[in-house]
Design brief:
The chain is α/β, with parallel strands linked by helices. It has 10 helices and 21 strands. Helix 2 packs parallel to helix 10 (373-381) and helix 8 (326-333) packs parallel to helix 9.
């Protein structure tokens, strides 16, 4: 049976919920801040429960008024921490990293700093929206409420997203009559050096794709990925080049912080003077190419075929780009002086850490870039013969609970 409980919020959990305790029960309450005394409606049994905020008896000094009306009115799940000051957000992310590494990874670090973003707002150069056909036959695009993952509300603005990206979405929705035949779609607009690029996902047929592209002259390119996973270029206004970057592949959404992170990564890896480098989950190869230009022999490993091809075209002679899974090709690329890992949120496959842990010749350094402290900590725990030499967070995603972390691991016995 649901019940009302009174809680003091102690911290922010990895997903952004406030954490409180009631008679031994750990309760997660969205949209609360550390130091607050709240009442929440909870249900369920066991040692953990999720609560719905009802009242705030004692607000935190860290609580502020959210900038975005969607955050409160529509319970937007895109951001989790807009109700907290930016300094408070950074402190919470420090604790999220520390708690994960100490609790899951069973390790300590000398510092848990998180470098702030130079932009707290309008930093995102990519916005992905869920698109639904309405009962009247029109289309609506938006985001999901945090307490209703299947629901979608119509988005008017997103204050953490670059204004050009938001305006491009408005232009696209004005031409929604040209969308593929489907009941639901998913779309991403990314701002590139050539202009906005749209990637639309869903449907089995799109006879009006070029009509949509022609109707929006500001679009640099349009890609479509159908329900079977096949991807094709619908239209392209980018200047002719012998080499064309893969605009539909993964890229960081906060360019300023991404640049700072790459510089820091280069610094900690270069300090070990590597002659050979393995760049796992290398993406389009920015990091791999930078080390190759410094004289290292680099093996870049990436599953996305477009990104791996783009990396291969630009790598200097002597270095290679492999289109492969890291867990299937890492052993063949070893030994190496430095191994860089930048996996998705799920972290590395267990085979990756097993190869590194059992290697007869261990790398001088493993530089692990993570967007999920929990899977970072899990993977560190799988590497007991390495110690943490440094740990630094980067606030790639202000107003959200997400944080990017760079962990420098070196052999425990030199």
């Amino acid at each position: 049976m649901p019940q009302m409980v009174s809680l003091e919020i102690e911290s922010i959990a990895a997903g952004g919920d406030g954490v409180g305790r009631n008679n031994g029960l750990v309760v997660f309450v969205p949209r609360t801040a550390p130091g607050e005394l709240v009442t929440a409606r909870i249900s369920g049994r066991g040692t953990f429960a999720r609560g719905a905020l009802r009242t705030i008896a004692r607000p935190s000094d860290e609580r502020i008024e959210p900038v975005c009306p969607h955050y409160t009115r529509d319970r937007c799940g895109g951001c989790q921490l807009q109700h907290m000051s930016y300094l408070s957000q950074l402190r919470s992310k420090q604790r999220i990293i520390r708690d994960a590494v100490e609790r899951i990874g069973k390790r300590k670090a000398d510092s848990w700093d998180v470098r702030p973003s130079s932009q707290e707002w309008r930093y995102r150069v990519k916005l992905t929206l869920a698109i639904r056909r309405e009962s009247g036959g029109g289309w609506m695009a938006g985001l999901h409420p945090f307490d209703d993952p299947a629901g979608v509300f119509a988005l008017v603005d997103c204050p953490i997203t670059n204004e050009t990206v938001v305006q491009t979405w408005r232009l696209i929705m004005n031409e929604a009559r040209f969308f593929p035949t489907a009941q639901s779609l998913r779309g991403s607009v990314r701002l590139t050096g050539d202009g906005p690029v749209l990637v639309l996902t869903g449907g089995t047929k799109w006879p009006n794709g070029t009509d949509l592209f022609d109707a929006i002259p500001s679009l640099a390119a349009v890609w479509w990925e159908n329900d079977e996973g096949a991807r094709r270029l619908v239209g392209d206004r980018r200047p002719p080049r012998s080499l064309q970057p893969p605009a539909a592949s993964f890229g960081q959404v906060n360019p300023g912080v991404a640049k700072d992170l790459r510089a820091y990564l280069s610094k900690i890896v270069s300090a070990h003077s590597p002659a050979t480098v393995i760049d796992g989950y290398s993406g389009t190869g920015e990091t791999a190419i930078a080390f190759a230009k410094q004289g290292a022999r680099v093996t870049a490993i990436e599953l996305d075929s477009d990104a791996a091809r783009w990396c291969a075209l630009r790598l200097p002679e002597g270095s290679v780009s492999l289109r492969a899974r890291v867990e299937e090709s890492l052993a063949g690329a070893m030994p190496a002086d430095a191994v860089i890992l930048n996996p998705p949120r799920a972290g590395t496959d267990a085979r990756v850490t097993e190869i590194l842990e059992t290697a007869s010749i261990k790398p001088k350094v493993i530089a692990y870039v993570s967007c999920n402290p929990a899977t970072l900590a899990r993977d560190i725990a799988r590497l007991p013969s390495y110690r943490i030499a440094s740990m630094l967070g980067f606030d790639m995603f202000p107003q959200t609970a997400h944080v990017e972390t760079v962990c420098e691991l070196v052999p425990a016995v030199a």
